[in-house]
Amino acid sequence: MLKAKVKFRGVPQSDEVNVRAAEGVVEKNGNQLGLNELAFDAPVSGTIYGTLLNYKGALEALGGEVNEAPYKAAPKAPILYIKPANTINSHSLPIPLPEGVSELEIGAALGVVIGRTATRVSEEEALEYVAGYTVVNDVSIPHASVYRPAIKQKARDGFCPVGPWVVNREEVDNPDSLITRVFINGELRQENTTANLIRPVAKLIADVTDFMTLNAGDTLLVGVPENAPLAKAGDEVRIEIDGVGCLENKVVRENELAGGGF
């Protein structure tokens, strides 16, 4: 079993537990419980930063457009955006589908949780600043341009499920060789690997902290693969990252949720 940190709903502090990531089993107080037997809260507390175009296929999908206005060239530094606090969601809770939107892009991302203040760290030392890894669904409303921050499309309530836990850094031998899969209603719709990152995890941390500080508790998303699958109201979404965990949520129309929203 893997050592991980988890936050249960209604409990103010995080717990250290043992998990079987592939099977979705948590060992707590000597008992082994399945994901559907526990109520999880998001296991992260800091700012969540997303990264655009960090998968080779995602950049290649732009084709010749990357050399035209407004881009004019391939990015020379990480393209970052923030998933604000209102977007943070947790395992098993619904993903709201806004009124007038028919489908959502499911953004499977490895979340790198920072363990201590990181400013201008070297690539060689970068992983020493990592507390652990988690599964993130960087949900967005489908849109074309990556030039301007897509706040309306990416920063909606509930658009960032995280969890169900954070696996300790030492439990992941190589964060740059993790298979990511997206299932919708049990059907495999996407498979990729962090081996396809333009900036591997350590380089991404080094490049980001060259111009900004990451604090303990912050989460840096390594990016979303190309051809993000779409999910509509009623769809069950499951994201798996080998050796890290599996995150499950259902897409529900916003007006069907309690209070008319997330």
Structure overview:
The chain has a single domain (42-260), classed as Fumarylacetoacetase-like, C-terminal domain (Fumarylacetoacetate hydrolase, domain 2, Alpha-Beta Complex), CATH 3.90.850.10. The chain has helices spanning 56-60, 151-154, 201-209; strands spanning 2-8, 15-20, 25-28, 31-34, 40-41, 48-52, 79-83, 88-90, 95-97, 104-105, 108-114, 130-137, 160-168, 179-184, 187-193, 219-221, 230-231, 236-241, 245-253. It is mainly beta and 262 residues long. The strands form three sheets. Strands 1, 2, 3, 4, 5, 6, 7, 8, 11, 12, 13 and 16 form a twelve-stranded mixed sheet that branches. A five-stranded mixed sheet has the order 9-19-18-14-15, with no helix packed on it.
